[in-house]
Automatic annotation (TrEMBL):
Entry cofactors: Fe(2+)
This protein's record includes keyword Metal-binding: yes
Family stated for the protein in its record: Belongs to the carotenoid oxygenase family.
Sorted UniProt keywords: Dioxygenase, Iron, Metal-binding, Oxidoreductase
EC numbers for this chain: 1.13.11.-
Listed Pfam families: RPE65 (PF03055)
Protein's recorded name: Dioxygenase
Domain of life: Bacteria
Length: 495
């Protein structure tokens, strides 16, 4: 193909931009609080070339790493492609060489055996190192100052898993990073690798176990004592992939599972709980312990949220008919059995966020995105084809909800949380908001929102002079953390 398909994966907020650019001292309306000092990194999928197939999806787009650098109330911006092996090969050929989403059997023969990941899902910061990640491969290290790509990162050969999650969890007290990779042993394998990196960034543990079936394990959770692996019935089949078919197909009649193990224990200690059939989730607000109970808050839907995954499994459901809600699953670790309690605690939505300091602990508040039916038709775009248009704040203990609805033709991307130096304040949320101004044309702004008063709207807005493509995930890195960046130094060791 020489032109981009006119499908939802390449129109709306998914309209390709593919431009590397930077700008200093962007125009700010309002005042950015002085304590917001650091960088908001964003993962932006954006295809550098038209795809090989008409039915390509947004999740296959090349990764771009974007950075809002905020200091003294001023904002600079830059965005660059992540120079993965795949990107470099296609750049040299001036065309797409890799075929359908996560299917190497559809690639041009010239790239057989090459690294297919586009590293387009989450920027991850740990121990002075910035990685761009996507769960089908290893992360790529990025220089946080220049945004130059430094190469694949495998802990200097120590990591044996072929994959690295886009959703590791970092303990705010110990500084350790807990992570995993599924299909760790190869395409459609049942292998899951569970890893721990210490606060200095050294790999200290990697254990492998088998999941009940090959599912897309997009996210997982930790508490102070446990690691939690939810398994949902969107499955991979090697024969289907080898025949040129889709990697994922949702199986509505298959049970879900949740595996819970001591986070410093052995995988043989994993305890499996059986969940409802056909449900799906890609992101979790948080998990924490209360006595013998482990609670996890999940953005649950009654079927898979991705249309192409539903269709591959024969599930005929319109996007607006997908049900669900923010749901609390509670597991009594002091009793035998494989059942658990479930109750809805909030409206449907996704892209949840808590303060980093609450990771694995009781959270008082959380924020996530939803679709407001009073906000007019949702803007087309984003990973599932429709965009969110309302920000929610929830207090799980009492169910209290506050909302920031957007106007017609507007879309909001996942926020990041910036803590406040004042313990009486909730901190700040940073998010990019898009407004449609023409066919496949949008004006975009960075919004700074008081996390304790979201209904009041932004305290500051930063207008973007160039088109923006829909973000997946983001990460906030403080100025102090940036000053400690390793940028490809040898791994540090405890003194």
């Amino acid at each position: 193909m020489t032109d981009f398909p006119q499908t939802v994966h390449f129109t709306g907020t998914n309209t390709p931009v593919g431009i590397e650019w930077s700008a200093s001292n962007l125009e700010v309306t309002g005042t950015i609080p002085e304590e917001i000092d650091g960088a908001f990194f964003r993962a932006v999928p954006d295809p550098a070339h038209a795809p090989m197939f008409e039915d390509e999806i947004a999740l296959s787009a090349d990764g771009m790493i974007a950075k809002f650098d905020i200091h003294g109330g001023h904002v600079d911006y830059a965005i660059k492609f992540v120079e993965t092996e795949r990107y470099a090969l296609e750049k040299a050929a001036r065309k797409a060489l890799f075929g359908r989403y996560r299917n190497p059997y559809t690639d041009d023969p010239s790239v057989a055996g090459k690294d297919r990941t586009v590293a387009n899902t989450t920027p991850v910061w740990h121990a002075g190192r910035l990685l761009m990640t996507k769960e089908d491969g290893l992360g790529y290290e990025i220089d946080p100052e220049t945004l130059e790509t430094l190469g694949r990162f495998d802990y200097y050969g120590a990591l044996k898993s072929q994959t690295f999650t886009a959703h590791p969890r970092i303990d705010p007290v110990t500084g350790e990073m807990f992570f995993f990779g599924y299909e760790a042993g190869g395409l459609a394998s049942l292998d899951v690798a569970y890893g721990i990196a210490d606060k200095h960034g050294n790999l200290v543990s990697e254990q492998w176990f088998k999941q009940p079936y090959c599912s897309t394990i997009h996210d997982f959770l930790i508490t102070e004592r446990y690691a939690i692996f939810p398994i949902f019935p969107t499955t991979a089949d090697l024969d289907r992939i080898a025949a040129g078919g889709p990697h994922w197909a949702h199986q509505q009649e298959l049970e879900s599972w949740v595996g819970i193990m001591p986070r410093y224990g052995k995988v043989e200690e994993m305890r499996w709980f059986k969940g409802p059939k056909g449900v799906s989730a890609f992101h979790f607000l948080n998990a924490y312990e209360e006595g013998d109970f482990v609670h996890l808050d999940v953005c649950l839907s009654d079927t898979c949220a991705f249309p192409f995954m539903r269709e591959a499994g024969g599930v005929d459901r319109a996007q607006q008919d997908v049900g669900g809600g923010l749901t609390r699953w509670s597991f009594d670790m002091g009793k035998p059995g494989e059942s658990f309690e479930s109750r809805v605690i909030g409206p449907p939505g996704d892209m949840p966020r808590i303060p980093d300091a609450s990771q694995g602990r009781l959270h008082r508040k959380g924020w996530y995105l939803t679709i407001n039916p009073q906000g007019g038709p949702p803007v087309l775009g984003g990973p599932v084809g429709v965009s969110f248009n309302m920000l929610l704040q929830i207090e799980p203990s009492n169910g209290r909800i506050e909302a920031l609805p957007l106007g017609p033709g507007m879309a909001i991307n996942e926020p990041v949380h910036v803590p406040s130096a004042d313990p009486e304040k909730e901190g700040w949320l940073l998010t990019v908001v898009d407004k449609q101004v023409g066919e496949n044309r949008f004006d975009s702004e960075l919004w700074v929102i008081d996390a304790g008063a979201i209904a009041a709207g932004p305290v500051a807005r930063v207008a973007m002079p160039m088109p923006m493509r829909a973000q997946v995930h983001g990460w906030w890195v403080s100025r102090q953390q940036l000053d400690q960046a390793k940028a490809r130094r040898e791994p540090a060791h405890a003194a």
